[in-house]
Amino acid sequence: MLFSDEYFMKQALQEAKKAYEKDEVPVGAVIVCNNQIIARAHNLSETLNDVTAHAEMQAITAATNNIGGKYLIDCTLYVTLEPCVMCAGALFWSQISKIVFGAFDEKRGYRRLNENILHPKTEVVPGILQNESQSILLDFFNKKRNK
User: Fold this and answer.
1) pLDDT at 1
2) Which one, of 116, 147, 146, 132, lies nearest residue 26 by Cα?
3) What angle do CA 78, 83, 89 make, to 5 degrees?
4) Which of 20, 47, 74, 107 could be a cystine partner for 26, CB 3.0 to 4.6 Å?
5) Residues annotated as part of the active site
6) Residues 99/123, Cβ–Cβ less than 8 Å
């Protein structure tokens, strides 16, 4: 199927590669509505000198600007890394319908603190293209450590 979770996660991975090329933590995100990508984003914390400039936050802003409203009902976020608590809170307020993520974040992921932080109607699908999502992060941090 052309518009599968894997298809859209590959799009998020393309965004993660853009972050990697900018020496940003390589996390990418896309938001999809009616099988169309309405937002693409990647981490920009270093570029913008802003700790809140995570891929998810950038994608939420782009998507709400695209649709002209603050709620992302009937939308899906595809993100290469499990959202942190900050991003999960923003996703709660956006009322996004579905979150699909690749790699688990055992240290800073929202599940570590509270799995119920998301909106009760939000469906979560973890581990889609997990190996690819994890690989780019491991490569990035290994290169940082070996500098």
Assistant:
1) 56
2) 132
3) 110
4) 20
5) 56
6) yes
